[in-house]
Structure prediction request, 586 residues.
Amino acid sequence: MQKVDTFRISLLPFCILIFSIFALMIVTYLAVSVPIFQKEGPQIYTTNIWKAAENNPDEEFYGVLAAIYGSVYTSVLAVLIALPLSIGFAVFVIDYAPQKIKEPLIVTTDIMAGLPTIIYGIWGAFVLVPMLRDYVMYPLHKHLGFIPLFSFEPAGGYSFLAAGVLLGVMVTPFASSIIREAYRMVPFTYREAAFSLGATRYEATKILLSYIKPAIIAGILLAFGRAIGETVAVSLVVGNAFNIHPSLFAPGYTISSLIANQFGNAFIYGYMVSALFAAGFFLFIIGLAVNIGSLIILKRWYSHAQRF
Amino acid sequence: MPRDFKEKFFLFGIAIIAVLTILPLFHIIYSVVVEGLPVLLKGGFKFLFGTLAPPGDGLGGIGPAILGTFILTFLASLIGLPIAVMTGVYAAEYPESIFGRLARVLLTIMMEFPTILVGLFVMQILVIPMGRYSAIAGALALAIVMMPYVTVYTEEALKSIPFMYREAAFGLGLTRFKVVFRVLARMAKKGIVTGMLIGMAKVAGETAPLLFTAGGANRIYFAGVDRPVGAISLLIYNLVQQPYENYHEIAWGASLVLMLIFLAIFLPLRLSLKEVKL
Prediction:
């Protein structure tokens, strides 16, 4: 007679609960987004219009393209900042930092990765933004204002650049920890081989880094995912304006800051809740794609790396 | 020689990069202390226990927000920890089952999920039916954010125990329940507790999931789990956006308090371990 595994059966409900929460989340996002899809179709994602009309739902029209643009813009900036910093930091900690400061350096970046994001937010709004405005944005705008990137007059300082820099600071420790773990796994014989060929430390590092390239890509992808989902810190520095402008100094919106800003009063309108859920759903999909992609890359790389 | 030059440039460069990477943290800590400490000293005990001042008039206190953060973290743990630990046990015990395998993937994805989406979700399923913001809604959102960390730590802690111990425990004729909870869980205690504390440290500082769930209450202390409740992070977020000078001061003071709470949980934890997942 087959014995019933009561232990397993008693644990199963907890497991199923987590899966149902996730499933319910997807269903909720889809269900609440339906009205806006029925009304506007794909235009919710392809236009930059934000027309809220009280008492007259037919007049309302929402297009979140500006927020999508801002999310991608700021996250790409963040990744561009995080890429050199996280690789450099990982290499420094593993190979070149004196033994004594290795551990403190890693602890420091772990604190950075865990620090409540609202603290980054207040620092960004009151310290980073004025600093960037006075020492970076104004000089660049004054002397190189003819270049589209610098063309916008940085009035308040709240801008794509401020958000990108803040996000870059926030995601660097996280990207670095993934790259560091991979870099640590590079077999010692590879280092020996590189040095025995007479490579300088610079050349050896370059060779070793090419070996962990997939892990770097995965780390950067995950950092991108974190940056695009970050809410409060960004919404305090990005300026919150519906704006599709090429300039780094222009204020804008991101999907998450749009939700944070507009959701509070969305209920008095007919379709705004639905529009915001549709924007959230977009974020959901990007997050899912980025995460699954990087997980696959990492998994493949680790199983490949273990064979050496 | 260019090769020689490149080498020196490279070493110099990555040292600079390493400094640049961690420099912001020190500047943040410096700013929060320089701006927040005078507020804390000026406000004294009243700052920690009092209620929020009116706009443009003095410091008042952030008592309800501090209490709210503790209540929310506690309630979130109450909801999230049992589910997360049990799921972690399941994933460790039955790694080949469909749920076991999928759980790992799902949780890793959930770990990286934008937390604002969790807040929005809880608002839709709990706040709207209830008709108001509440502590329980905030706690549920935080619990969803917390669960993946705790589960992954639990699973890894249990898996790290050598197989021998399992064999020995079964060899004594113990039931699976006793093997797991009496023998293995005790041995993996440190890892499991670490996961719980990391999860709690994480949610104590979260803001985005609370935006549309906890509601915020800064002038009254706790009124019940079905009533709105404040949180330090939420308070800072709201105060920074206000135009009043005294509100900005309170925000800095509150940031210092939040940072100290975070460091008090996180630092001892981090120093007792080799690495953490965040």
Remarks:
- DSSP finds twelve helices and two strands in chain A.
